[in-house]
Amino acid sequence: MNRFENQTVLVTGGTGGQGSSHVRAFHAEGANVVIGDIDTERGAALADELGSRARFTRLDVTDESSWSAAVLAAESAFGALNALVNNAGVQNPPAPIENTDQATWSRILDINLTGTFLGIKVAAPALRRAGEGAIVNIASTMGLGGTAHYAPYVASKWAVRGLTRTAALELGRDHIRVNTIHPGVIATPFIHEPAAGATAAIADFYSPEPFAIPRARGADRRHPTSPVPHVTRRLVHHGVGVHHRRWPPPRARPSGRDRMSTPDPTGSNDSARDASLSHLPDDIRRAIEITPAAGTRERIIDITTLGRRTGRSRRLEIFFYRAAGNTYLCSGAGGAATDWHANLLANPDFTFHLKNGIRADLPARATPVTDPAERQAVLAEIVADLNQPHDPGTIRPTRLEDWAESRLMRISFRHRP
C-alpha cells in the first residue's frame, strides 16, 4: 500500500538505527525520501540502495545554512517537501550533574534541541509552500520523567516537548501539524555502544533486555518505526488546526475471543474461570480481559504497593497479561530483578490501576507462581501472543527460553472493603 506516493519526507539522523528504519519505512510505502546525516559514506550507500526515490544530503542539524541546503535539495529533487522527521540525536556520557562539564551539556542541547528548532524554522516555509505538511519530532520516554546521570539528554527531550507544542500552535493555521513521539528502549547501537566520550554503553548501567524492542525494519507495523509514518500520514492528509494526540484511537476489539491465543481446553471463558473478576463492572472486566489484538499501550498499568524497606507507598508502571484464564504480572524476557516483585513478595496487597481507555483503581492481591506446570503454560501463552503478527507495537520476544528467569505473579481482584 503506497500511503505516501508523491510525498517527500526529510529524515534527519537518517543513517542510524532508528533513522534508517524510518527512511526505509517511508520509502516502502511510496514516499520520496531525503536522508539527512553527517555520515556521508553511509548516507550515500543507503540512498544508492533505495534507488531513484531516495537522495542523500549532508546535514549538520546545528547549522542553519546546512538546513537550508537540505530543504533546497529536497525541493529541487522532488518538487516539494511534505514532511520532516526530526530524528537526529545524541546521548551524553553518563555522569552526575556535578560531574557534567558545560561543553557536554551544550553539545547535547545543540544537537537534540537546537537541531530540532532549526529544522522546524527552516522547513516550515517549505511545508507551507506545499500547501500542508507534518513535522514529527522524535523525543524519548526520558522526556516524560527523570533519569539519573543523563541530565543533558533528559533536559533536551523535555524541551523538545515544549517546543513541539509551541510550534503546533504557531503552524496549525497553515495546515502544518507538529507532534512528538516518545520511544522507549529500542535495541539499536544507541544503547549498546558508548556515547561519545564514554567508555561504557547505557546497557552496561542497567539491563534493557526485558524492555528493549528489536530494531525496526522496513514498514512492518509490528516494529517501533510504525508510529512515525502513521502519525505523519494523518497529519499530511488531515492536518487542520492544532490537536495534540498522545495515542491513536482504540482499535475495535474482536468479539468472542479470549485474551491469549491458546484455546481453552475446558471450553469455558475467562470470566467463568477467574472468579475474582465476577464482581467488577462489565467495562472494567472487558478492559482486563484484553484480546490478542491488544497492543503495548493496552497492557500498561500502574500498581501502587508498599516499599519492602521503607513501608512507603510506591507507584510503578508495569505490563500485565491474561493467560490460562487469569491475570498476571510478568517482568518480561531476561528476568532482571525488579522492585515491584520484591515489594509484592513482602506486601502482596496492592492497587491495580487501569489507565489507558478505561480508568479504574482496583484492590488486588499478588500470589507468586510456584507450580512449574502453571509457569510453563502461562509463559508459553504470553510468548505465543506477543509473537502474533496482528499485535502491532508490542515488545515481543522470539523464544520461550528468553523468559526462563521471568518473575511471574498471579493477580486476584478483591472486593472493596
What are the defining features of this structure?
six-stranded parallel β-sheet; 2 domains; 417 residues; 34% helix; Pnp Oxidase, Chain A; Rossmann fold; alpha/beta; elongated
User: Which range best describes the helical content: under 10%, 10-25%, 25-40%, 40-55%, 55-70% or over 70%?
Assistant: 25-40%
Shape: elongated
What's the overall average pLDDT, rounded?
76
Give start-end ranges of low-pLDDT stretches. 206-224, 234-273, 390-398
Total beta-strand segments: 14
Report the top-level CATH class of the largest domain. Alpha Beta
Describe this structure in words.
The chain is an alpha/beta fold and 417 residues long. The protein has two domains: 8-238, Rossmann fold (3-Layer(aba) Sandwich); 270-413, Electron Transport, Fmn-binding Protein, Chain A (Pnp Oxidase, Chain A, Roll). The protein contains twelve helices and 14 strands. The chain has helices at residues 17-28, 40-50, 64-78, 102-129, 151-171, 189-192, 227-238, 270-273, 282-288, 296-299, 339-346, 372-386; strands at 8-12, 32-37, 54-58, 83-86, 133-138, 176-181, 186-187, 213-214, 300-306, 313-323, 326-330, 349-354, 360-368, 408-413. Strands 3-2-1-4-5-6 form a six-stranded parallel β-sheet, sandwiched between helices. Helix 2 links the parallel strand 2 (32-37) and strand 3 (54-58). Helix 3 packs parallel to helix 4 and helix 4 runs parallel beside helix 5. It is elongated and about 65 Å long. The protein starts with 7 loop residues before the first strand and ends with a strand.
